Amino acid sequence: MTAVRLVNSNSSCSGRVEIFHNGNWGTVCDDSWDWNGAQVVCQQLGCGRALSALGSAHFGQGSGPIWLDDLQCSGTESSLTDCTHRGLGTHNCRHSEDAGVVCDDMTTVRLVNSNSSCSGRVEIFLNGNWGTVCDDVWDVNDAQVVCQQLGCGKALSAPRRAHFGQGSGPIWLDDLQCSGTESSLTHCTHRGLGTHNCVHSEDDGVICEGLQ
């Protein structure tokens, strides 16, 4: 199986796609790059489901060889080299066309604007941006997912109405309905990434029992 890695991001489950061949790490061209190709990468890295397949060197331009071009994957292959492509090293691309992916299993979450890393306004990192979560139907089950992911123990409360101040940037999630056992907020039922009817005065927060 061809080794793959994601680089130039603050998460091991998002970044520029690079594969190892003939002793060199090289990139993948974004011609025909789509969710199915991204899914192969996310699966191979144990990062769950692909959220997006990004082109135009979204995570910066790589260097070295461009190993794959015109990839056509079904999404079930065990490695990108098992997909249809032009041949290893055969391409008509530049590094400004380097492909990237964002997978959801490692959705990075943080709690901000508090004096404890186990309480604060909830923010998640997607598509290169930190954004907030809307408090519509936000409850302690949703908060529990965040506390669990951060190793902060049990959720004590799920403050609403920008209790920890208003955020900025995208509002990534709305109408979250979690059971409390999910490994990431993106695994809960929601309206769709970036789909909401909220303003930042509705940013939600959590207070977990951990005092890290």
UniProtKB/TrEMBL annotation:
Pfam families linked to this entry: SRCR (PF00530)
InterPro entries, alphabetized: SRCR, SRCR-like_dom_sf
GO terms, molecular function: serine-type endopeptidase activity
Swiss-Prot/TrEMBL keywords: Disulfide bond, Glycoprotein, Repeat, Secreted, Signal
Compartment(s) where it occurs, according to its Swiss-Prot or TrEMBL record: Secreted
Residue ranges annotated for the SRCR domain, each copy included: 4-104, 109-209
Record GO biological process: zymogen activation
Segments traversing the membrane: none
GO CC entries: extracellular space; plasma membrane
Intrachain disulfide bonds: 29-93, 42-103, 73-83, 134-198, 147-208, 178-188
Top-level taxon in the UniProt lineage: Eukaryota
Primary location group: secreted
Gene3D superfamilies, per the entry: SRCR-like domain
Designated name of the protein: SRCR domain-containing protein
Organism: Zoarces viviparus
